[in-house]
Structure formats: structure tokens, C-alpha cells
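It is worth pausing here to work through a concrete case rather than discussing structure prediction in the abstract. The textbook approach is simple: state the sequence, then state the predicted structure, then interpret. We follow exactly that order.
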Amino acid sequence: FELRCRLHAQREIRHLAWKMLGLVKNVAPVIFDNAGPPCKTKRICPMNKKDCKWYPNP
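Step two, the predicted structure:
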């Protein structure tokens, strides 16, 4: 989910990944608690894309 939920992923793939993430969080919330794009879960951007609207702000 870390790669496919990113804002820079293809729109259709990202949409499907977010749907899948929602489903697995309902089934196993503890396991998937920190799943998702790193900009939202870890507050870091591995691509350092400052033009991204999800870019972590201090």
C-alpha cells in the first residue's frame, strides 16, 4: 500500500489501492494501522516532491 496509495501513482491504481486498504483495515485494523503512503503514515516523502499536496509540512 505504501507505493500504490501515493498521490503520484496512476489514478485508477491509487483509487483501487485505497479501496483495498479500507477493506483490510476493517478485517485486521491492528496489522494495517500504519499502512498507506509514507507521507501520511510516517510524515516523510521518499520522492521529496515538494509540489505534492500531501508533502509533509513541519
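Step three, interpretation. The chain has one domain: 1-47. The radius of gyration is 12 Å.
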